[in-house]
Structure to design on (398 residues):
């Protein structure tokens, strides 16, 4: 997987031992391939305090409990890749009353936090496979133009991802809902880890 | 635009003169290019009665008035490409109380009608340009497996379209909502007639 810029990565976790394990796996795999990489494992609170851009890569069901007690989000860029969905016979999009996970998250953050939506439609399996390129489109939503620009630049540095400004945070229900749709397409058409390209 | 099968096309309209004009334009353009084509222009009621597969290619705001008084949908396959959306600064998905245009349409049809969702995410401009191929993915939703198969086969005969079974009609809000998202992506990234591919 190509990376055209080196970022300092902090992996935050409620369980610092778990974060350490994840960090070590990341570092080992990157070093084996000669990729430059800087990873540090810290508590969630330290990750929030020391980061400029915070990616909340957690399942929706853990969102409230993870956010509870965390402080220091003022002025930071927060990215939500969170998709509230459930699986029975098919995958279904089950958003909270606010209309989407991102719109719910907005109520948990200070007003000065610059919340963006991104990475919602890329399968976790594809991120783990660092020997393969990620050739997908990434819809980025948000109400603050400057933070959207920062997030889009970051995305365009990762593998073959291509970012697209997808409008305001009000579009988040569609972007989040696209993930259960892609999961159903995978299931119904015997495919794996289906993603999306805007053409 | 390639077509690997010849269908008999009935263009239905409330205004038969308008249907005739549309039909003549289609026939002329097809004949000029040596494409085989059979098009007949009839009233909406006649189109419903004589067709096996009915594509309701109308704006959402005209759905109720168009359906009012039409009969004979029993057992037929009906395709909804309808996206209820509004435009102010950005495009927004504004579904009816049932959750989507397709789920609303379901309440207007007899129980035996086999309703599918398809063609929602292809721009009208791209359909009009018959010298260009359409290279898009088409999500097909529906609760009846046999009619979904018929619709998917039909789609795969058109240009370079590729159909994907996208699960039950319950997924229709996401597929319909994808269209205003694609419109916003076009607007925000200075693109035209953006479509989608599942990869």
């Amino acid at each position: 997987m190509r990376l055209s810029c080196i970022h300092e990565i902090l992996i935050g976790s409620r369980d610092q031992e778990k974060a350490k394990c994840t960090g070590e796996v990341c570092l080992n795999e990157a070093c084996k391939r000669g990729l430059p990489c800087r990873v540090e494992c810290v508590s969630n609170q330290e990750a929030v305090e020391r980061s400029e851009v915070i990616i909340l890569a957690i399942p929706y069901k853990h969102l409230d409990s993870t956010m509870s007690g965390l402080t220091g989000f003022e002025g930071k860029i927060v990215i939500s890749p969170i998709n509230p969905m459930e699986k029975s016979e098919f995958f279904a999009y089950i958003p909270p009353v606010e209309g989407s996970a991102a719109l719910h998250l907005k109520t948990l953050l200070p007003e000065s936090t610059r919340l963006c939506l991104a990475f919602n439609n890329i399968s976790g399996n594809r991120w783990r496979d660092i020997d393969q390129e990620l050739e997908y489109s990434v819809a980025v939503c948000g109400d603050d133009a400057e933070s959207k620009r920062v997030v889009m630049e970051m995305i365009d540095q990762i593998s073959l991802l291509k970012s697209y400004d997808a409008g305001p945070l009000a579009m988040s229900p569609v972007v989040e809902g696209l993930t259960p749709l892609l999961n159903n397409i995978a299931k119904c058409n015997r495919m794996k880890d289906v993603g999306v390209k805007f053409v």
